[in-house]
UniProtKB/TrEMBL annotation:
Its main location: membrane. Belongs to the cation diffusion facilitator (CDF) transporter (TC 2.A.4) family. SLC30A subfamily. It comes from Actinomadura rubrobrunea. Keywords: Ion transport, Membrane, Transmembrane, Transmembrane helix, Transport. The chain crosses the membrane at residues 26-46, 52-73, 94-117, 129-148, 160-182, 188-207. This is Cation transporter. It is found in: Membrane. GO terms for cellular component: plasma membrane. It is a multi-pass membrane protein. It comes from the Bacteria. Residues 28-217 form the Cation efflux protein transmembrane domain. GO terms for molecular function: zinc ion transmembrane transporter activity. Residues 224-296 form the Cation efflux protein cytoplasmic domain. NCBIfam families: CDF (TIGR01297).
Length: 307
């Protein structure tokens, strides 16, 4: 690492990724949502309610998403025994979030197709199961949201699960509203309208999460980090004459990474420059893993790469 020989990384090393800190909460949410899915599917089939069935379908997506997040956080914590995964398996969490997006979009498409197929068709819907199961679903989803809320701010995979449960919470409210409307008016159309509204809500949440997943996989600079500002701060470190080949990206939730070449002045202490630059990135920008190459001003052959 250039002039970094002999500098330890113990204090700055990230020992656990964000998703791993919330595995127990993910597990508890998985049990809650899985149990509710079984109940909702059974009563959806008995009542004939499309709103209830669509919410059950979305609940199935929740179960899959939570299971994927649990598996991903487990995989991400494994040590690499092959020697080939030099960054470990942390990206498993991001792939799980991408899978959650696909499941959410697939669920929304299914809801829309079923809803459009019911327009103009005769259907019988029992409102009482809709109201009972909708109320039960609301309570369970609120409990799951409380479990996942803290982790959603730190972990992309937990955020995917949180958004799934949030959409289900809205779905439970929709099922209750549809049950009331069907019971008071006798018009089954309200059940179909609510199902379509749930589908739209799911798509909006899926697209938002999908953009974040693509930004990580495309190795964009982390949200909230200005590359030019970071370069200027590194250039202002005493002894630094120039900064080039600066790259910033996110490995997984809560784990930002940086590489850079620091050109030093003639009298600069390379070790001091390296320490100050690393402290700046860690303390001011939460970048715990930085690979910094220190180069004297008269060093030749280090041409900037075009990318």
């Amino acid at each position: 690492m250039g002039a970094g020989h002999g500098h330890g990384h113990g204090a700055a090393q990230v020992t656990e990724h964000a998703g791993g800190r919330h595995r127990r909460r993910l597990g508890a949410a998985f049990v809650l949502i899985g149990s509710l899915f079984a109940v909702e599917l059974a009563y959806g089939l008995l009542s004939g309610s499309l709103a209830l069935l669509s919410d059950a379908g979305h609940m199935a997506a929740d179960v899959v998403t939570l299971a994927a997040a649990l598996v991903a956080t487990k995989i991400a914590a494994r040590r690499d025994t092959t020697g080939r995964r030099t960054y470990g398996s942390y990206r498993a969490e991001v792939f799980a979030s991408g899978f959650a997006v696909l499941v959410m979009l697939g669920t929304a498409v299914y809801i829309v197709v079923e809803a459009l197929g019911r327009i103009g068709a005769d259907a019988e819907v029992s409102s009482r199961p809709m109201l009972v199961v909708g109320a039960l679903g609301l309570v369970v989803n609120l409990a799951a949201l409380a479990l996942l809320r803290a982790g959603a701010a730190e972990s992309l995979s937990v955020k995917g699960a949180y958004l799934e449960v949030l959409a289900d919470t809205a779905g439970s409210v929709g099922v209750i509203a549809a049950g009331i409307l069907v019971a008071t008016t006798g018009r089954v159309l309200f059940d179909t309208v609510v199902a379509l509204a749930i589908a739209v809500f799911v798509v909006v949440r899926a697209l938002g999460l999908g953009r974040q997943v693509l930004a990580v996989l495309a190795q964009h600079a982390p949200a909230g980090l200005d590359v030019d500002a970071v370069a200027a701060e590194l250039a202002a470190v005493p002894g630094v004459q120039d900064v080039h080949d600066l790259h910033l990206w996110t490995l997984t939730s809560g784990m930002n990474v940086a590489t850079a070449h620091l050109v030093t002045t003639e009298q600069a202490d390379a070790h001091a420059v390296l320490d100050r630059a690393r402290e700046l990135l860690r303390d001011r920008h939460a970048i715990a893993h930085a690979t910094l190459q220190v180069e004297p001003a008269d060093h030749e052959g280090c041409d900037e790469v075009g990318w």
